[in-house]
């Protein structure tokens, strides 16, 4: 049985170095609050506000370290509340996605793209993927059990030697399935 | 292929005759705004506020006609926002569920039970169920396709000669699967 732990991702933002400086001040560095399951990734102490045409979220957690491009990941529920209509995308694939206004303590910016609903995915260390015969970018079916049990289709495999085994779903997917961080899911095929 | 249309249920409330009077005044009758897919059921013009320990919703749609017992149906997302922890239940099965404060234009009440997250279910007219060999209360697996496609397990069959064929999921389930009202889902078994 190919079992993977579930990690539920609440709304969060990745910022470019340039945008960190625009929002927090010149030379600013994010402070690590908590390490995440993927090695080197962390939840920062800092948050920003994001403001859409219909609503806003005052405290959106920043995940570090800085990335090449700023990216806001929200659930579909969040997207309705903000008044933005992002597509379901793999992280990093932001061409043609909507932008949004972001406010920090030292400034505000308006990004012209970068808002996505993250496509559910599993991070595999290269050794896990080899053991189970799974290729990078393969589409998987993954079952979560329980009273709201379901089988997620189109779960994207992401394989890298820096990854730790973890399946990432968003809060809508967690609420619909009853799955919580640390629950185990099963890869069917 | 056993295909059923999907109906997405947003948060809503059913009220007893006694509670309609407590909230709207003696002898008050709900006004029909829009007929629902189930014959005789309607969305009323009236709304109420529901107030939890953490948050509130100002305009929760009342579905009529009056029922024997008051029942508030919310998504898990809504439940977190309100600060209430309802179980997943079939409609009408409210023993041991949490209560909540409900406010109308003529009064307010505090119910001691009745808040549920509705178990996903399919309404079958008796003739549909017979044709497909489906029993009342049978647990089904139902597939929704598309980019966020998934297979819902534990979908409850509800069979009655007054029902029209319709699969009811809540907003979390709709957002997680990408399914919209009017989309078709397929009963697998």
Automatic annotation (TrEMBL), chains A, B:
It is an enzyme of class 2 (transferase). Its cofactor is Zn(2+). It comes from the Bacteria. GO terms for molecular function: acyltransferase activity. Pathway: Polyol metabolism; 1,2-propanediol degradation. Its EC number is 2.3.1.222. Signal peptide: none annotated. Involved in 1,2-propanediol (1,2-PD) degradation by catalyzing the conversion of propanoyl-CoA to propanoyl-phosphate. It comes from Paenibacillus gansuensis. This is Phosphate propanoyltransferase. Keywords: Acyltransferase, Metal-binding, Transferase, Zinc. It catalyses: propanoyl-CoA + phosphate = propanoyl phosphate + CoA. InterPro entries: PTAC.
């Amino acid at each position: 049985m190919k079992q993977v732990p579930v990690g539920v991702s609440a709304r969060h933002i990745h910022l470019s170095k340039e945008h960190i400086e625009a929002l927090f001040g010149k030379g600013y560095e994010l402070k690590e609050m908590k390490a995440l399951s993927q090695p080197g990734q962390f939840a920062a102490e800092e948050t920003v506000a994001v403001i859409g045409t219909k609503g806003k979220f005052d405290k959106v957690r920043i995940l570090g370290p800085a990335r090449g491009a700023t990216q806001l990941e929200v659930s579909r529920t969040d997207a309705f509340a903000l008044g933005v209509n992002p597509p379901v995308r793999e992280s990093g694939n932001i061409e043609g996605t909507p932008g949004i206004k972001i406010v920090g303590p030292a400034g505000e910016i308006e990004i012209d793209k970068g808002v996505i609903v993250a496509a559910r995915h599993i991070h595999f260390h290269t050794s896990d993927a080899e053991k189970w015969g799974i290729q990078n970018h393969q589409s998987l079916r993954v079952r979560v059990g329980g009273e709201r049990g379901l089988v997620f289709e189109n779960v994207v495999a992401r394989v890298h030697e820096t990854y730790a085994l973890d399946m990432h779903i968003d809060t809508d997917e967690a609420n619909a399935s009853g799955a919580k961080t640390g629950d185990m899911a099963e890869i069917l095929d």
